Amino acid sequence: MSFAVSSVIAQAAPAAAGNPIITFLPLIGLFVVFYFLMIRPQMKRQKEHRTMLAALSKGDEVVTNGGIAGRVEEVGESFLTVEIAPNVKVRVQKGAVSQVLPKGSLKSA
């Protein structure tokens, strides 16, 4: 009986000495899939957000990340002054603006 076990152990398959590129091909394929499904769309959204922030001007109607809607009164280097009600103004960072509303949206709300 021990003879049969030792012959099975001796017949173990040798390690595959394949091409290293073929070995890493699934990992490379996974990275390509992640790039096109996750990284590239996120970079596109960031670029659109940066161009939206660069195009902000006085009179634009915006919504902040906190949900506050108002009209832009002043545009600075990194801050905005937003009027949220008559004679009520708040200063927010430019990055806190989540979207620009069409003109006249605040009057209809």
UniProtKB/TrEMBL annotation:
Superkingdom: Bacteria
Protein source organism: Dyella ginsengisoli
SMART domains, sorted: YajC
Primary localization class, coarse: membrane
Coiled coil location: none
Membrane-topology annotation of the record: Single-pass membrane protein
NCBIfam families: yajC
Name listed for the protein in its UniProt record: Sec translocon accessory complex subunit YajC
Intracellular or extracellular location(s): Cell membrane
